[in-house]
Design a protein that fits this description.
About 25% of the residues lie in helices and about 35% in strands. It is built from 15 helices and 42 strands. A nine-stranded mixed β-sheet has the order 21-18-17-16-15-14-40-41-42. Strands 1, 4, 7, 10, 11, 12 and 13 form a seven-stranded antiparallel β-sheet that branches. It has a seven-stranded mixed β-sheet with strand order 23-24-27-28-29-30-33.
């Protein structure tokens, strides 16, 4: 059977453009989201007019189809055990970009979505969702990545992949996982948007994925996981569940639904409870342990309100975040994600969840048993270093799909690696993987022996600019490579693996020089002003042109007319700007720019700069790393510096299923 979805993209586009003409871009997005939320189409007993309506199907409803979509007015589908017919305009067929039977060249792991007119074609990756609107011969008219175009039908399949999006969140982590059964897990989200240099974090990417790529009005996460209680991991998650208007205005979707919120238990408490701020401590068999771990939903509510039997209350931004998750969705369950040391000693990695044929296993943190209550060991009992414990007791997961293993390691450090080695009885074979998210952004506080056990074919390091930690450290980049799985081409002259990715390196920006700022209709008397950012004598001829000048130039065809227009325009604009420059010098006009930028991980600098010599970021190519697998082959892909096309690597998965 073929998966279909109820989506009426023609009506959706009409709503968007009508709202944009009347109210502008922002309101057009709101109107588009509301259109999707309110849309329904009838499931009818037959295509005939007046046929009984069996059900009303909302936007996004999943149905099954016995055959590919056609241009027939109605299509037979099955919904919830009932067979009926829906208007074909309100239906899409779900497909995915396919791969060749044998991957001899990674470049074959892509396909082209051809767009009409002079619009740029889109380069799609293996596994990209393609929503087919109709078919004609061997060509499908489809929507992918929010764009409409045509694609060869033989490039498509109905088999989905395991997809991991390592999101560029600067200093921090953020990974969106889409499982082959269509479920989603978001692991961490980076710093809050307000503390990001780019003003974006995982919340914005996830919003784009659901609203723009899928075409939904709501974000549906089966799992949201905070690997630990550091803000550079949960801050972006909080932006998703914030209810204030300013936060919601940043997102195009209208709601976020979360099935289960997962956490490592170790939380933030007032220093009055325990000076380290991680809650009460005790002794267990001579080991210092943290005794109060966050638990299920009712426990989370009690720790937010301080209404539990122990009277304890969470503190700081972590408490605020947990409170937001609770109020965002009353149906969200809370789950402590950890494995007992007794399980680890047996070489077991408990199953957290099953997503179709993909198994999600827990590798950390490892808890001790205190009379039936899980507790976590203090990794620095003599030093009282909070970050060693919060980082070290991160949630660690292994995603198993076919012969592929992908490892999520949070912010593990040397102390926690030693503890986990002990917990697993020295046998770290369960940590070996194909792809690993690097521990703690490439910090040098790691165990090389542990990296050797991981032996990843590809490692993804999530790090940011200007974060004060010099991440990733060069010795750790080197260690990730020399401890990785080595595979060479048949000629033994090229490296297939190991591969080392860094979101900081994959990111690129385009800076543009500012020559002037023009203000129009300022104040009640609607005056126009020009502020110069460099001497007029340094202007090139083209820099004198305004938007209106460029528009007129585009409409000209005669070379002589173009030449004459350019000369006249440059002369006139130059005279006007020279007069403005003389006025600035005569009146001692000064321009100052006021703003803020990140300082370290969470600090801010408040800058005052002259307009002269200013550069602006015109384009930011997201440092996203795509990792996808069908359980046999693994693809890693990132955007090239110019934001066009992809750099793609591929290698065989190295493990048996399960």
């Amino acid at each position: 059977m073929i998966e279909g979805r109820i989506r009426y993209f023609d009506g959706d586009a009409n709503m968007y453009f009508a709202a944009k003409r009347n109210s502008g871009y922002r309101e057009a997005k709101r109107a588009q989201a509301r259109f999707r939320r309110d849309f329904t189409t009838p499931l009818k007993a037959s295509p005939a007019g007046g046929a009984p309506v069996l059900a009303e199907l909302p936007w996004g409803t999943k149905v099954t189809m016995s055959a590919p979509i056609t241009r027939d007015p109605f299509t037979e589908v099955e919904f919830d055990g009932t067979t009926g017919f829906v208007d074909t305009r309100h239906l899409v067929e779900i497909a995915y970009v396919d791969r060749p039977l044998e991957v001899t060249d990674p470049k074959t792991l892509s396909a082209t979505l051809k767009r009409a007119g002079d619009k740029d074609d889109a380069d799609l990756l293996w596994g990209d969702m393609v929503q087919i609107l109709d078919r004609a011969g061997g060509t499908a008219r489809a929507r992918a990545r929010g764009l409409i175009g045509t694609i060869s039908a033989d490039k498509l399949t109905h088999k989905a992949l395991l997809e991991c999006y390592f999101i560029d969140v600067g200093q921090g982590d953020g990974v969106l996982v889409r499982y082959p059964d269509g479920s989603h897990m978001l692991i961490d989200g980076g710093l809050p948007r307000s503390k990001q240099q780019t003003g974006k974090n995982a919340a914005d990417f996830v919003d784009w994925k659901f609203f723009r790529d899928y075409g939904d009005w709501r974000i549906d996460l089966d799992w949201m996981i905070a690997s630990h209680s550091d803000e550079d991991h949960y801050g972006g998650l909080k932006d998703l569940v914030e209810k204030d208007r300013a936060a919601r205005e940043e997102l195009d979707t209208l709601e976020v639904a979360i099935g289960t919120f997962g956490h490592p238990g170790l939380s933030r408490f007032p220093a009055a409870v325990e000076k380290e701020g991680l809650g009460p401590k005790g002794m267990l068999g001579g080991t210092s342990v943290f005794t109060r771990l966050l638990g299920d939903r009712s426990d989370a509510q009690a720790l937010v309100d301080g209404t539990g039997a122990d009277g304890l209350k969470l503190s700081g931004p972590w408490r605020s975040f947990i409170s937001r998750v609770l109020t965002n969705d009353a149906a969200t369950e809370f789950e402590l994600i950890a494995l007992p040391k007794s399980e680890a000693e047996q070489g077991n990695a408990p199953v957290l969840a099953q997503a179709g044929d993909c198994t999600i296993r827990v590798l950390g943190p490892a808890t001790l048993d205190d009379g039936g209550t899980p507790v976590l060991p203090d990794l620095t009992p003599t030093a009282n270093k909070k970050s060693i414990n919060t980082n070290g007791h991160s949630v660690c997961l292994r995603l198993d799909y076919g012969a592929a293993r992908i490892l999520m390691t949070g912010d593990l450090n040397t102390a926690s690696m030693h503890w986990l080695t002990e917990a697993f009885g020295g046998d770290l074979s369960g940590w070996k993987c194909d792809v690993a998210k690097a521990c703690h952004h490439g910090s040098d506080d790691i165990s090389y022996k542990f990296l050797q056990a991981i032996n990843a074919a590809a490692t993804v390091i999530s790090s940011g600019d200007n974060e004060g930690h010099a991440h990733p450290r060069p010795e750790v980049v080197a260690a990730s490579a020399i401890s990785g799985r080595v595979e060479l081409t048949p000629s033994q002259d090229k490296v297939v693996t190991p591969l080392i990715y860094m979101t900081e390196i994959e990111r690129s920006v385009m800076l543009s020089e500012v020559n002037r700022i023009e203000l129009s209709n300022v104040g009640d008397d609607r005056q126009d002003f020009t502020i110069l950012a460099k001497p007029v004598v340094e202007f090139s001829d083209s820099e004198f042109f305004t938007d209106r000048d460029w528009k007129r130039l585009e409409d000209m065809a005669n070379p002589d007319t173009i030449k004459e227009f350019r000369q006249e325009t440059v002369t006139a604009r130059k005279q006007a700007l020279e007069a403005a420059e003389e006025g600035e010098m005569r009146n001692f006009t000064r321009s100052r720019l006021y703003g803020s930028r990140p300082k370290g991980v969470v600090g801010r600098n408040y800058d005052r700069r002259s307009l002269r010599g200013l550069r602006i970021m015109e384009q930011n190519v997201y440092g996203l790393v795509n990792v996808r697998t069908d359980g046999e082959w693994i693809m890693c892909a990132s955007k090239r510096d110019n934001g066009e096309r992809w750099t793609i690597h591929a290698f065989k998965a190295g493990f048996g299923g399960g």
